[in-house]
Structure formats: structure tokens, C-alpha cells
Amino acid sequence: MSDDDEHGRDVELAKEKDEEEAEDIDEAEELQNEGAREAREEAAEDEAERKSEMREEEAAEQENIDNHRDDEPFQS
User: Fold this and answer.
1) Using one digit for the tens of pLDDT, what is the confidence trace for 12-40?
2) CA-CA to 63 of 20 to 30 Å: which in 16, 40, 44, 53?
3) Is 35 exposed, middle or buried (0-12, 13-18, 19+ CB in 10 A)?
């Protein structure tokens, strides 16, 4: 094998290695972005659930504003 052939092969192998590393980085970034997107969606769902529960509690309170009168009086 001549020096030119070896050098050409080395260059080709280096290019392939760089391409594989770039693909690995792209895949890792994609997974990270997907994880972040899922976390944001989950947080938004949790926030919507919390707001819904608060609205339900407020509606129940409005239906029976005097509900606190059913409780035992405070005694010290």
C-alpha cells in the first residue's frame, strides 16, 4: 500500500468517525429535547389539573357560602 492510499484511507476513516459522532450528538440532543418537551407538557397538565380543582372548590364554596357554620365552633 502506498503512503497516498494509507493517507486517503485514514482521512476517510476520520470523516466516517466524525459523521458518526455528529449523528450521536444529534440523537442525544433530540432525546434531550424530547425529554424537555415531555416535562413541559406534564407540568402544563399538572397546572391545568390544579386550576380545575381550585375552580371546583371555589364553585362548591359559592354553592354553600355558609358551609363554615356547619363546623364546630372554635374553642380554646
Assistant:
1) 888 988 899 999 999 999 999 999 999 99
2) 44
3) exposed
Q: How many CA atoms lie within 13 A of 59 on its CB side?
A: 6
Which amino acid, residue 23? E
Q: Cα(69)–Cα(32) distance, rounded to whole angstroms?
A: 53
Cell (9 digits) for 35: 425529554
H helices of the chain, where? 3-63
The answer to whether 55 and 61 have CB atoms below 8 angstroms apart is no
Grid cell, residue 22, equals: 455528529
